[in-house]
Amino acid sequence: MKNKIDFRNVIFNELIKIRKKNKNLTILSADLSAYTLDIFKKQFPKNFINLGITEHGMISIASGMAMCNKKVFAFSMIPFLILRSFEHLKVDISCTNMPVTLIGLGSGLSFDNAGPTAHSTTDIGLMRNLHNFTIFNPSDPSTAAFSITESYKLNNPSYVRLDKSQQSILYKKKTNFKNGYIETKGNSDICVISTGIMVHIAFELKEKFKNIGVDISILDLFIIQPINEKKLVNIIKRYKKIIILDENTYDGGISILIDSLVGKNYIKCKKLLFCLPKEHCFKYGSRSWLHKIFQLDGNSIYKNIKKIWF
């Protein structure tokens, strides 16, 4: 098995490199840390501020610092960074179009045993309703590194949605990430569309289907907003069957995004959708156990696809 890398280490290592070139880069935290963030703090103590458990205040401060030509990255857990601070995100960041980057930790069911207050299964849907925001949802260390370096270059606000896990590298660093998606082509008429860590399950499915002589394609959508609708529609039109894997609720993640693309562009294809139900999860266990409960694990998805299409 390939070495697995923590998304946080990738992100803050990139920010250390950037800070060496730009003294105006500042990281704000709402009392949340990480191994490589501690390294950043030691190297650049004047470029880090822990504001305590006051995410909404952190957003307003980040906006003010951006107005003073600081390049600001605000870091916290997704439920608090996005849900608790939503009005401030709208007024102080979105309306003013300040180039602040939000780094949210804990996508989907990352904080598995912490319960519904720590799960983040609707934040994509919320953030897609805020104007000006670019939304990144990296699936592996390579797309994570691209997400943070690309967000640094933007002149508009951005949201980098991080999984609280270690994942293996799916793509080489020289891969062209500019389109915001990566298509891994197979030779069948089936394409799996996914984002974030569910892309790893998509690759697991690819291996399972190869064993029965079916080579499926994978579309990794790691920039969720803005999307190149024309290019994505042209890709989807090439397939007779699409499978959507989404560790979010239907209208809280990419499911509704893909569904609407298919519908409004009159794409004729068969669809299978695997996402979380629209309910709070009060079940407590590991993420892999929760995936089995909701039939989002590779084996369950594979069996369901075979039962319906094969």
What does this structure look like?
With 310 residues, the protein is of the alpha/beta class. Helix content is 39%, strand content 22%. The chain contains 12 helices and 14 strands. The strands form 3 sheets. It has a 7-stranded mixed β-sheet with strand order 3-2-4-5-7-6-12, sandwiched between helices. A 5-stranded mixed β-sheet has the order 9-11-10-13-14, with helices on one face. Helix 1 packs parallel to helix 2 and helix 8 (198-210) packs across helix 12. The longest helix is centred in the N-terminal third of the chain and has 15 residues, at 7-21. The model has no long low-confidence stretch (mean pLDDT 96).
Number of strands: 14
Strand order of the largest sheet: 3-2-4-5-7-6-12
Head-to-tail CA distance between termini: 30 Å
Biggest sheet architecture: 7 strands, mixed
* Percent of residues in beta strands: 15-25%
Radius of gyration: 19 Å
Q: Report the order of strands and helices.
A: EHEHEHEHHEHEHEEEEHEEHEHEHH
Structural class: alpha/beta
Mean pLDDT: 96
Proportion of helical residues: 25-40%
Q: Unreliable stretches, pLDDT < 50, 5 or more residues?
A: none
* Basic shape: globular
Number of helices: 12
